[in-house]
Amino acid sequence: MASITCLIQHSPEQGHHSYSAYKFCQAAVAKGHQIKQVFFYGDAVHHGNALAHQSADEQDVRQLWQSLASNHQFPLVICATVAARHGIVAAGDLKDFSAGNLAPGYHAGGLAEYMEAVATSDRLVQF
What we know:
Belongs to the DsrE/TusD family. This is Sulfurtransferase complex subunit TusD. By secondary structure, this protein is α/β, with parallel strands linked by helices. 32% of the residues lie in helices and 20% in strands. The chain contains four helices and five strands; from the N terminus they run E-H-E-H-E-H-E-H-E. The protein has a five-stranded parallel sheet with strand order 4-3-2-1-5, with helices on both faces. It is globular and about 35 Å long.
C-alpha cells in the first residue's frame, strides 16, 4: 500500500476543498493506505483555530479532520509561520495568552517537517 502526504491550501470556509481532501484521506485509509501527514498551508491554517465558530447547520470539517487523524494516527500540521501571521499560536507562544488558540489534534510545524513527510511518502496529493 502507498504512503501519502496531503497538502491543503484552502480555509475550511472556502468551498469544498477541505472536505474533498478529507473524503480522499478517509477513502485512502479505508483501502489500507497510510497517511503520513496532512499539512495545512496558506489560508488552510484556519483549520487549526480553536476559536473559530462553526454554524450548527454546516459540516464541521475541522472536527472531521481531528477525528480521522486520531482514529488513524497521523499528524495534522499547520504551518507555524503562516499560522502566526493569522493569529493562531500554540500554547506558550504568547505571554498574554498562554493557552494559545491551536485546536486539539493539530500542531504547528514548519516546512522542513512537511518536506520530510513528502520525501518519505509515495504520493503527494494537493487540495
